[in-house]
């Protein structure tokens, strides 16, 4: 049975209850994070805290827990859920909490944010499967203009993701005004002539922890990478296409809108980057052990 964390308590999931007046339930008024834990070590936790704070500031909400308390709660959850194995994906969300006066758009006068977290197994990265690549479709980015907030109100993402799924694809690559923003649950990179490109940070994309690490690794190892707008022509003539997220790491997309991407392979730069990515995880783990 899974143990979850709700407002300071560790509870069996069946016993964790939230008020129907919670603004997360009524308005989607809250933010979240997803943090991998590899062998008992939280992945890029300082970076996750920076993004969480950015999201909280954007919706004018204070976390009821300090960062140290959050890290401790997450590690306790990992230890209380050994059935999920060595590698886990932790989910946390903070909502503006219940408003005892009912459903009102304005913020309640007394705010008791709801802090909830759970964990699940993170399956090991499957290199062979990743190397074979997946398919994606393009769709118009119908989301709001504040996609940098990791908000729990994900209706457009869910609808777009389902559309991709219904088309037999892994992801939808989103286009806004003719330019790639990101995908519904991941960031986007292309490779052209051994050079990596990704759309620049902007309010239109979520600052992915994986995206930032790919950029950092490319810079550290002198692999050419530019953060620059990617128009539809660049996307459709790319040699390689990747999506990135904490659960997928760097995943090649070899078919876009039913057409092969480049020569249809993951590509040598993917082999290089995924190795650097893996080495980074191993080093971060051993650094934390010291
Ligand atoms: C819309 C969106 N973009 C990008 C990402 C990738 O972020 P990260 O690398 O932190 O998992 C996610 C992950 O959930 C996402 O939902």
Please give a quick description of this structure.
With 290 residues, the chain is an alpha+beta fold.
Q: Supply the number of helical segments.
A: 8
Run of helices and strands: EEHEEHHEEHEHEEEEHEHEEEH
Report the major sheet.
Answer: 9 strands, mixed
Radius of gyration based on Cα positions:
20 Å
Strand content is 25-35%
Please report the total strand number as a whole number. Answer: 15
Q: Give a list of the ligands.
A: pyridoxal-5'-phosphate
Mean of pLDDT = 97
Query: What percentage of residues falls in helices of 4 or more residues?
Result: 25-40%
Distance from first to last alpha carbon:
33 Å
From the helix content, strand content and strand pairing, which structural class follows? alpha+beta
General form: globular
List unreliable stretches of 5+ residues: none
């Amino acid at each position: 049975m899974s143990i979850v964390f709700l407002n300071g308590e560790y509870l069996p999931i069946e016993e964790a209850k939230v008020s129907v007046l919670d603004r997360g339930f009524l308005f989607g008024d809250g933010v979240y994070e997803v943090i991998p834990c590899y062998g008992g070590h939280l992945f890029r936790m300082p970076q996750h805290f920076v993004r969480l704070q950015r999201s909280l500031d954007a919706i004018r909400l204070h976390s009821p827990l300090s960062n140290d308390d959050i890290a401790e709660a997450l590690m306790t959850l990992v230890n209380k859920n050994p059935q999920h194995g060595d590698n886990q994906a932790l989910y946390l969300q903070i909502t503006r909490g219940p408003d005892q006066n009912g459903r009102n758009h304005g913020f309640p006068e007394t705010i008791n944010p709801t802090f909830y977290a759970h964990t699940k197994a993170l399956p090991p990265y499957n290199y062979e499967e990743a190397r074979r690549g997946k398919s994606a479709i393009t769709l118009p980015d119908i989301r709001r203009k504040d996609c940098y907030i990791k908000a729990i109100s994900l209706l457009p993402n869910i609808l777009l993701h389902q559309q991709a799924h219904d088309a037999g694809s892994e992801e939808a690559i989103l286009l806004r005004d003719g330019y790639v923003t990101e995908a519904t649950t991941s960031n986007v990179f292309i490779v052209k002539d051994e050079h990596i490109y990704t759309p620049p940070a902007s309010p239109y994309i979520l600052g992915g922890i994986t995206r930032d690490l790919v950029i950092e690794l490319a810079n550290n190892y002198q692999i050419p990478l530019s953060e620059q707008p990617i128009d539809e022509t660049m996307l459709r003539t790319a040699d390689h296409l990747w999506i990135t997220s904490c659960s997928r790491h760097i995943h090649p997309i070899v078919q876009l809108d039913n057409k092969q991407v480049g020569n249809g392979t993951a590509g040598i730069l993917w082999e290089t980057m995924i190795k650097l990515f893996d080495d980074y995880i191993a080093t971060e783990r051993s650094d934390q052990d010291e």
